[in-house]
Amino acid sequence: MFRKALLIIFLIGFSVASEKEYEIGKKLVQQYNCLSCHDFSQKRTGPSFTEIAKKYGTGEEAVEQVAKIIINPPSFMPPFKIPLEKAKAIARYVLTEGAKAASKKQKKVYEDDYLDLDSQFH
Ligand code: HEC
Question: Whose CA is closest to atom 39 on ligand 1?
Fold first, then answer.
C-alpha cells in the first residue's frame, strides 16, 4: 500500500517535471527566435525541425547532441551561449515537435492520395 503510494507520487512528479521541461523548451524557442530561421516542417534559412529529428532521432542521445549543436553550431547558425540544461530543453522540444510534424505531413499526403483515388470514380 505504502509502496504503491510512493510509486504513484514518483510517477506524478516525473510527468510534471517533463511537462515543465517541455514548456521551458517551448518558451526558449520563442525567446531565442529559432523560428525566424527554422520551421517545423518546411525548410527556411535553416533545415526544418522535422529534417533535424529525422537526422538525429528523438532519444536522449539526440537531445544531448542537438543541445550541443545549439550552443556551438558547426556552421552558419549563430551560437547560443546558454547552459546545457536550457539547450536540452530546447532540443527536446524541437525534436519532439519536429517528429510530430513529420507524422502529420505523412498523414496529409496519404489523405491527398486517397482523395485523388476517390476522384477517379466520379
Ligand atoms: C539566423 C538564423 C538562425 C537562427 C536564429 C537559428 N538557426 Fe539553427 N540553423 C541555421 C542554419 C542556416 C543552419 C544550417 C547550417 C548548415 O547547413 O551548416 C542551422 C542548423 C541548425 C541545426 C543543425 C542541423 C543539422 O542538420 O545538423 C540545429 C539543431 C538548429 N539549427 C537548431 C536551432 C535552434 C534550436 C535555434 C534556436 C535556439 C536555432 N537553430 C536558431 C540558422 C539559424
Answer: 34
- pLDDT, one tens digit per residue, over 27-50 is 999 999 999 999 999 999 999 999
Q: Whose CA is nearest to atom 26 of ligand 1?
A: 52
Using the mean position of ligand 1's atoms as its centre, give its distance from the Cα of residue 3 in Å.
46
Which superfamily, per CATH, for 20-119?
Cytochrome c-like domain (1.10.760.10)
> For ligand 1, is residue 90 a contact (CB within 6 Å)?
yes
How many Å apart are CA 66 and CA 43, to the nearest integer? Answer: 18
C-alpha 8/C-alpha 40 separation (Å) is 35
Global confidence as pTM: 0.82
